[in-house]
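#lab-general

N.A. 3:47 PM
ok so I finally got the sequence cleaned up, no stray characters, all 138 residues accounted for. can someone with queue access submit it? mine expired

B.Y. 3:52 PM
send it over

N.A. 3:53 PM
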Amino acid sequence: MASATYLSNPKVTINSVDLQDMCSAATLNVVFEALEDTAFGSTQRTYVSGLGNHELTLTLYMSYAASETYATLSTLVGTQTTVRVQPTSAVDSATNPGFILTGTYLETLPVLNASLGELSTIDITFQGGAYTVDTTNP
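B.Y. 4:20 PM
back already:
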């Protein structure tokens, strides 16, 4: 039985800032809304692809230092930006594609999430945007 696995170590770039060292989880869902196109006389429902409604959720360690989490994200709340996620930090290729959301929207930024004796993390979600896949070495 053939199988292929990889050690999860995604590269995360938000608005051209590399936040790989601040990210501990990334989930990208590619979603196209289902539009029903069932016609009279059909015996089963059928669907076609509608608008893309993609979503990227990241868990980031919070840092208020320059070029880190808060400084990068604070100006992006309520705006559109570009986010890129790759399975590993290697160059783009067919086996390490760059998943890109262009014009994706950041609605909410938790500015503080603190518990005594724990590293502060936040979960953010980017919504929508144009989804592309890059397999070419820049």
